[in-house]
Specification:
60% helix, mainly alpha
Length: 177
């Protein structure tokens, strides 16, 4: 049973549903940013022979990863959403509550959390098992999200948190000719 989503926002007539093409691009931007930051951590803390290769890279990557995660929890924004002009609302069209944004961010960033846990684990075999779990979960997220977008217009993260992605539409002035 589908639920009717109200995309209107009181006082803001320039809001529209986020379309699939833009959501895909936003997802690619977010995945690229996270992958590069995780690579910086992997080069320092990963299993042999990868770990210890670049000792200085991990600090800025860890700081940026934490900042991006906090930004997503507090505002729902990611690099991909900002680049595509997206925002998050609840299904009634109101600003999403902080608990909804937190739930969505935790559910969405679960593979990154498992990846970070793998790096903090002692033992090469344990690290590899955790890394395998993180990569498998990340790969499963792709079809899981897009199947739910095709069926409901919302990602699995949005369904779990009760949010909906919106796109701000810029008003174009009408030229007088």
């Amino acid at each position: 049973m589908s639920q009717q989503i109200d995309y209107s926002v009181p006082g803001d007539p320039f809001v529209a549903p986020a379309n699939l093409n833009r959501r895909f691009v936003a997802g690619v931007v977010d995945a690229t940013v996270m992958a590069l930051l995780c690579l910086g951590l992997f080069l320092r803390f990963g299993p042999e022979p990868f770990g210890e290769a670049r000792g200085w890279v991990w600090k800025p990557c860890a700081i940026l990863l934490a900042m991006f995660f906090l930004l997503e929890i507090l505002s729902g924004l990611t690099a991909g959403k900002v680049s595509m002009g997206f925002g998050l609302r609840d299904v009634a069209g109101q600003r999403a509550a902080i608990w909804r944004l937190t739930l969505r961010a935790i559910f969405r960033e679960a593979p990154v959390g498992i990846f970070v846990m793998s790096l903090l684990t002692d033992g090469e075999l344990a690290k590899m098992i955790w890394l395998f779990c993180a990569v498998t979960l990340a790969i499963c997220y792709i079809p899981m999200c897009y199947i739910s977008i095709f069926r409901t217009g919302r990602t699995t993260f949005d369904l779990a948190a009760g949010t909906v992605a919106i796109r701000r539409v810029r008003a174009t002035p009408i030229s007088k000719s």
